[in-house]
Structure formats: C-alpha cells, structure tokens
Amino acid sequence: MKHDEVKRNQRGQRMMLRYPASTRVNHWTMAVSFILLALSGLAFFHPAFFFLSHTLGGPVWARILHPFIGVVFFLLFVAIAVSNVRYNLWIKNDLRWVRQIGDVLGNHDERLPPIGKFNPGQKLVFWCLVISVPLLLVTGVIMWRPWFAGYFPIPLIRLASLLHALAAFVAIATIIVHIYAAIWVKGSIRAMTRGWVSRAWAKHHHPLWYEDHVDQDLAEQRKARDGQGERPGAERDLKARE
C-alpha cells in the first residue's frame, strides 16, 4: 500500500501501516468470539458460573452455539496465524531481550536489543495460542453432542473434557497477558484499531521491522525513479528524511 509514503498524523509525523484492515477485522471478530466462548465455557465448567450461559441466550442456546462459535474462532485464528507466522519466528535478539526482562519492565528500552515486528512476549502469546486453539478444536469435536461424541468411547470423551479445560485455561491466561501487554505499551491498541503507527513509534518499539519497512520503501522509490530518470543525490535525500 503506497499511502504510508505520504500519510502523516496530526503532528506531521510520517506514518506506516502496521495492521491492514483485513487483519484488524479478523482480530476484533476473534476477540468477540473468544469472549463469548470463554464466558459460555466457564458456565459449563462450574455451577458457580452457570449464570454466564445467558451471554448466549441461556443454557440451551449456549450448548448449541458454543461449538459453532468455536469453529468460527478456529478458522479466523488459522487465517491470522498463517499470515503472521513469519513475523513470529524466533531470532537471536529475542533471547537477549528475554534475558534483559528487567530492562523491559523498567522501561529502559535504550538498553534492549533491536527486535522485529513482534517482541518475544508477543511471540510467546502467538505460539501458546498455536498450541491451545487446535487442541480446543479437536477435544471440542470429540465432546460435541449430538453430532460427533457418539463416535468416540466414553474414556476418550472424558480425557478430551480434561484436555479441553486445560487448553481453555492456557488460552484465557494467555489472552489476559496479551490484553495487559497491549495496554502497557502505549500505542498498541490504537495500532489495532486504526492500523497505522508513526515511524517514530515503530523505530522505538520495533527497530528491525522499521528498518525493513524503510529499506523496502527506498527500494520501491528507487525503482520508480529508475523509470523516470534518476536525479543525482536523490537517494541520499531520501535516507536523510528517514
């Protein structure tokens, strides 16, 4: 998208696209789905939370809708996971970042090694969900009455129930950490609602991603200039503006 070449915020800062509209729609649809699944799931987990079944219209509708919403959530998660897996691969600086967690918590960002589009904490959230969400789907299908549970032996359904509860606990705890981190790092929620961040924000929080973006930007502009006849010193001027 070329708009980030000229888009600026109210302070005149140049902006860059962090999350396209498709990712933001997917993310917030997943968020709503996850809340409904967590609340209705807690209603099934313990009688003390049974009142939460009314979030889906009562116990009968909660029983019917919970697995269907779960399938929708899984498909949305697969889409966003596939498109972002390359940004969540572990790099050498991530381990250094984790070892310096004291500097992270102390907001001493100037001491931290440069990281990519996502920091190691975000990557851990990603991989926890990569493990827990498919496990929730598989165990949920095994327990899904009246469509599939009849095909499985009772001991397997009981084991699936246990694993489903454990995976749900991991997923809920992971999402709570995810929400806390998003609130903690100023600008993260705005990035997921508006899609854009300032280049200064990107350079401060995700310098390697910022550098990749600038390099790609310069390469595209160089290619465009080559087709129009290059002015001597133009590339130097572009880098100076960054």
From TrEMBL:
Membrane topology designation:
Multi-pass membrane protein
Q: Cytochrome b561 bacterial/Ni-hydrogenase domain: from which residue to which, for each copy?
A: 18-195
Membrane-spanning ranges: 25-52, 64-87, 124-144, 164-185
List the GO molecular function terms.
electron transfer activity; formate dehydrogenase (NAD+) activity; formate dehydrogenase (quinone) activity; metal ion binding
| Domain of life according to the entry | Bacteria
One Pfam annotation reads: Ni_hydr_CYTB
One Gene Ontology term of the biological-process aspect is:
respiratory electron transport chain
The keyword Cell membrane is assigned to this record: yes
- The ranges of region (Disordered) come to 220-242
One cellular component term (GO) for this entry is: plasma membrane
Cellular location of this protein? Cell membrane
Name the needed cofactors.
heme
Q: Which InterPro entries match?
A: Cyt_b561_bac/Ni-Hgenase (IPR011577), Di-haem_cyt_TM (IPR016174), FDH_cytochrome_b556_subunit (IPR051817), Formate_DH_gsu (IPR006471)
Keywords for this entry?
Answer: Cell membrane, Electron transport, Heme, Iron, Membrane, Metal-binding, Transmembrane, Transmembrane helix, Transport
Q: Does the keyword Chaperone apply?
A: no
Q: Which family does it belong to?
A: Belongs to the formate dehydrogenase gamma subunit family.
The cross-references to NCBIfam families, in alphabetical order and at most eight, read: formate-DH-gamm (TIGR01583)
UniProt-recorded name of the protein: Formate dehydrogenase
Q: What is the lineage of its organism?
A: Bacteria, Pseudomonadati, Pseudomonadota, Gammaproteobacteria, Oceanospirillales
